[in-house]
């Protein structure tokens, strides 16, 4: 297993719609291991394959806190079957949009079908943080970012900031306190 570089905004790869996984095999299981290792290293609680440049409908989540035993979940070809009418608001962040957080309103609960790491069909009813995380990561698979759920003004400011950071990185400017890569 290895840590993969994260794709960072404004990279257009993040807007790609990911393709369904055709078959679960050893190479796909290795990719899930790489994704988990990358997510833990970042550190984060969720990661979609597209965030490491793999346009596959696959994501990993682990909501265990730092002092808890890891509880990794692998979701292959996840599909939201049902969303609650009740809404909840969480402050979301994203490994592909480092150091930016915003409150996002989403359905409070979801029912999701998916294949597990062994290719077995599963279903989960999730609420709270797991529901939010699943929706956030499934959005990635559809080329949607959490900033698409905030006001256009805030979103435009974030995109402008990250475009400038990417431009500065390309030109070699590394001002103190500036996020690079």
TrEMBL record:
<keyword id="KW-0479">Metal-binding</keyword>
<feature type="binding site">
    <location>
        <position position="140"/>
    </location>
    <ligand>
        <name>Fe cation</name>
    </ligand>
</feature>
<comment type="function">
    <text>Removes the formyl group from the N-terminal Met of newly synthesized proteins. Requires at least a dipeptide for an efficient rate of reaction. N-terminal L-methionine is a prerequisite for activity but the enzyme has broad specificity at other positions.</text>
</comment>
<dbReference type="InterPro" id="IPR023635">
    <property type="entry name" value="Peptide_deformylase"/>
</dbReference>
<dbReference type="GO" id="GO:0042586">
    <property type="term" value="F:peptide deformylase activity"/>
</dbReference>
<keyword id="KW-0378">Hydrolase</keyword>
<dbReference type="GO" id="GO:0006412">
    <property type="term" value="P:translation"/>
</dbReference>
<feature type="active site">
    <location>
        <position position="137"/>
    </location>
</feature>
<feature type="binding site">
    <location>
        <position position="94"/>
    </location>
    <ligand>
        <name>Fe cation</name>
    </ligand>
</feature>
<keyword id="KW-0408">Iron</keyword>
<dbReference type="Pfam" id="PF01327">
    <property type="entry name" value="Pep_deformylase"/>
</dbReference>
<keyword id="KW-0648">Protein biosynthesis</keyword>
<dbReference type="GO" id="GO:0046872">
    <property type="term" value="F:metal ion binding"/>
</dbReference>
<feature type="binding site">
    <location>
        <position position="136"/>
    </location>
    <ligand>
        <name>Fe cation</name>
    </ligand>
</feature>
<protein>
    <recommendedName>
        <fullName>Peptide deformylase</fullName>
        <ecNumber>3.5.1.88</ecNumber>
    </recommendedName>
</protein>
<dbReference type="InterPro" id="IPR036821">
    <property type="entry name" value="Peptide_deformylase_sf"/>
</dbReference>
<comment type="similarity">
    <text>Belongs to the polypeptide deformylase family.</text>
</comment>
């Amino acid at each position: 297993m290895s840590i993969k570089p994260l794709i960072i905004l404004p990279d257009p790869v993040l807007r790609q719609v990911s393709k369904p996984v055709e078959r679960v095999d050893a190479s796909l299981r290795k990719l899930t291991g790489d994704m988990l290792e990358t997510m833990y290293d970042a550190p984060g609680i969720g990661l979609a394959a597209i965030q490491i440049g793999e346009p596959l409908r696959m994501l990993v989540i682990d909501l265990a806190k730092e002092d808890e035993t890891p509880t990794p979940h692998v979701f292959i070809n996840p599909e939201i079957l049902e969303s609650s009418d009740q809404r909840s608001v969480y402050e979301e962040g994203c490994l592909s949009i480092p150091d930016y957080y915003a409150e996002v309103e989403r359905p409070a609960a979801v029912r999701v079908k998916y294949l597990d790491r062994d290719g077995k069909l599963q279903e989960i009813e999730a609420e709270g943080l797991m529901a939010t995380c699943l929706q956030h990561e499934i959005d990635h698979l559809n080329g949607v970012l959490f900033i698409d759920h905030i006001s256009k003004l805030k979103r435009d400011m974030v995109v402008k900031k990250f475009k400038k950071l990417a431009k500065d990185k390309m030109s070699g400017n590394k001002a103190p306190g500036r996020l690079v890569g």
